[in-house]
Amino acid sequence: MKKGLRDALRKALSTTAGSGGDFLPTPLATQFISHVRDMNFMRQSFQTTTMTSKTKDYPKLLGGTKVYYQATEGGTANKTSVNTGTIRLTAKKFMAQIDMSTEVIEDAQGDIKSVIRQHFAEQFAEAEEEAMIVGDPDHASTTATESAATDVTWFNKDHRLSFYGLLTLASDIAGEINDDTRAANRVNAAGLEMSTAIARQGLYNMGKYGRVMKNIILIVNPWSANQLLDDTKLVTVDKYGAGATIMTGEFGALYGKIKVINSAFCTNGYGVLTHKTNPIIGDRRLIKIKEAEWISDDVIYFVLTSRLDFTINYKGALCQLHSLDEPSDES
Questions:
Q1: Average pLDDT of the chain?
Q2: What is the Cα–Cα distance from 1 to 96, expressed in whole angstroms?
Q3: Which one of 35, 84, 224, 232 is CB 3.0 to 4.6 Å from 220, fit for a cystine?
Q4: What is the CATH number for 24?
Q5: What is the spatial distance between Cα 259 and Cα 43, in angstroms, rounded to a whole number?
Q6: Closest CA to 136 of 116, 119, 147, 152
Q7: pTM, two decimal places
Q8: What is the CA radius of gyration of the chain?
Q9: 101: containing domain
């Protein structure tokens, strides 16, 4: 369970004014997926699909049809062997359990429904977004004791272990682009500040996937995002004009076309480019809340769950930017 959620629950367990007892939660909505979507730019930016079972398979082409010049009228066409592959979504469960004393519910004076719902949505949105950017099921160093977890050693139920994030997938450059076993060549920024020149190198490395700028999304860490604000080729959202669709975390567009996202979960010194149709979010169970009363403790338990998966169509449509300038301790 995320720290912010635990802190909120500690307050909720108290009936002291100013510590949770000032509000009265009314029955919570069974679904608040729309709130999560509003807070998680990944859900706004990329395609989602409904999973009708635990797994869902997508076919994909690994090689295109080869076109030939035919000089002879009525000549026989040259045959192309097209290789195919499969994308499989497998639902992973996100889960949190909280409890509230019935005194809090009975004695509080206001309606905390929107406050609680907003907070729960924030925590699930953050967990999803972080896993979709830096998730790594193969992370080697884990611990069964949550209090012993660090940035290097993850708790063995950490949400980042659920699926591979974009930064993780973009780091894999062993294999062949043509058979979709590797990402595009990474861009080594060599300690330089984030700039459009670095982004252009990433577009070049993406090859055919990086040709149309309006289809590209660039995700950067907050420090690199601040540096881009000084770049004259960045059109900030205040200049988009009336009727523009702005995603959560979006602060501008390079050359007025490449969407630039500032994510707190993107590691310092890193960024990633992707084609907007590349990532896929599969929803097996939308976020729901169920409740049950524990009579002996006079406590109501709320269990929040969702089942989803996250993957990509093509590794070659990812390009990692690394060794970007990082903030110092005094920045």
A1: 81
A2: 6
A3: 224
A4: 3.30.2400.10
A5: 15
A6: 152
A7: 0.80
A8: 23
A9: 3-63+82-322
